[in-house]
Amino acid sequence: MGKYVLGVDLGTSAVKVSALDHSGQIVAQESFGYDLIQKRPGYNEQNPEDWVSGTTVAIVRLILTDHLAAEDIEGVSFSGQMHGLVLLDEDKKILRPAILWNDTRTTPQRQEIMDKMGDEFIDITRNQPLEGFTLTKLLWVKENEPDIWKKAKYFVLPKDYVRYRMTGNLAMDYSDATGTVLLDVAKGQWSQRICDVFDIPMSMCPPLIKSIDFAGTVTPAYAEFSGLTTATKVFGGAADNAAGAVGAGILQPNMVMSSIGTSGVVLKYEDNADVNYHGVLQFEDHAIPDKFYSMGVTLAAGYSLSWFKKTFAPAEDFNDVVASAEKSTVGANGLLYTPYIVGERAPYADANIRGSFTGIDGIHQRHDFVRAVLEGIIFSFRDLFDIYEENGGDFDTVVSIGGGAKSPLWLQIQADIFNRKVVSLKNEQGPGMGAAMMAATGLGWFDSLQDCAKTFVHFGKEYRPIPENVKKYKKLHDIYKQVYGQTKQISAELLDFRRENMK
Ligand SMILES: Nc1ncnc2c1ncn2[C@@H]1O[C@H](COP(=O)(O)OP(=O)(O)O)[C@@H](O)[C@H]1O
Ligand SMILES: O=C(CO)[C@@H](O)[C@H](O)COP(=O)(O)O
């Protein structure tokens, strides 16, 4: 039996590879960043080979720098940014950059799907056909890049492409497949009806596997490239939020996950498929076999902070910029930020809305803007909490993961705005932990992911709401909720202006 498993967290800003031992301790961790390709407003793409290179560099560093013996790495699995379209030709070569989950160019395709199928579509997929989801991207390529479409023989999602380059096998796990909105959730198979309505060959859809299913062994070519051995087994993996929920131990109805990655996510474990949010919240297959989860997604959570830092403090240390928010006050001296800088998915499914700072005063300084960004992102999460509460959700614990969970200030802001106990993980890498848990369970180290969680999941510090802050944030959130409705039209007109006057 090998000593370690690897959890590959293929995020939007970077890939993080964690090596864990049988006790669930992270013995080593490496990461490698990559950029977004943003050719036009609302466009977000990445080169799939950058994911492969980044993952491989991280693995090579685990072996050469952290001195993990390749023969001790028994299994690998994945957590992946969802929905991104990777189109392959008959030789499984990439045909174009991947169109990502936060790309909002496909509003016409979203409308086309609803015009042709209406509520039937939501009944089959349990989701609206939103711009971020894979089907709208397939239709966009079909309608706008016919020469590429003609050569397209397969499509996969980001983590599936990296797993393919590792094993030589094409596959997609159920949790990620639900996010394509081509899966018939009730039947657990690709929807022939949807493929027929939109004339998409069913042969393009990859074989479906479970998150803990064996997906192949490392090929000799990839072994030479990465330093792994061909004895290392690879497992299905999951959508990053399913993996995050596993890694965060979100296995009870009283717990909810708050994830501040590039995107922001409020996620609830669903024991069965009975609940129906009518597409207002996403509904997905879980990485845990025959279980589900629902979630609301803020498109620019961590991305808002990264954008602000890159734009207004490019030469400064990231942590120093975040820490400067301490100089401001609870409520950022009455300055509000709405995180809609690439459009929004939930609670407002609006590709044309854009962000705003509201209430700018001559007294405001840059640290007030930083604080407003931190608070505005969590106000958007609060909107999602409100939807859950309106649907009977009753949570007493919030498990916070993602890069944003590295900030004690941001964790306290969450406790104050949610008015609930917020706990972090010992290592905030929920998705990477979940991916490693899928490998460990797939290898038979544990009987189930729930069983594995008892050993692998370790909670960190708790943050309790501070009553006077809760009161101030409640007042501010009531003001915040007005901004979307009062800026929607202005945003759309300014977006038109930007597009007409593109360089
Ligand atoms: N020390 C930090 N404090 C606050 N936010 C952070 C910190 N480090 C990273 N972040 C935020 O976390 C985000 C990246 O989180 P991560 O979970 O790695 O995202 P992804 O999986 O999308 O790549 C960044 O957008 C950044 O804004
Ligand atoms: O679109 C979604 C979920 O529906 C996003 O959560 C993506 O999966 C990107 O995740 P991060 O890179 O932000 O972790």
Automatic annotation (TrEMBL):
Active-site residues per Swiss-Prot or TrEMBL entry: 240
Carbohydrate kinase FGGY C-terminal domain span: 257-441
Site (Important for activity): 9
Pfam family, one: FGGY_N
Residues covered by the Carbohydrate kinase FGGY N-terminal domain: 4-247
Domain of life: Bacteria
Binding site for substrate: 82-83
Keywords: ATP-binding, Carbohydrate metabolism, Kinase, Nucleotide-binding, Transferase, Xylose metabolism
Entry's EC annotation: 2.7.1.17
GO BP terms in the entry: D-xylose metabolic process; xylulose catabolic process
GO molecular function ontology, one term from the record: ATP binding
Catalytic activity: D-xylulose + ATP = D-xylulose 5-phosphate + ADP + H(+)
UniProt function note: Catalyzes the phosphorylation of D-xylulose to D-xylulose 5-phosphate.
Family assignment from sequence similarity: Belongs to the FGGY kinase family.
Record-given protein name: Xylulose kinase
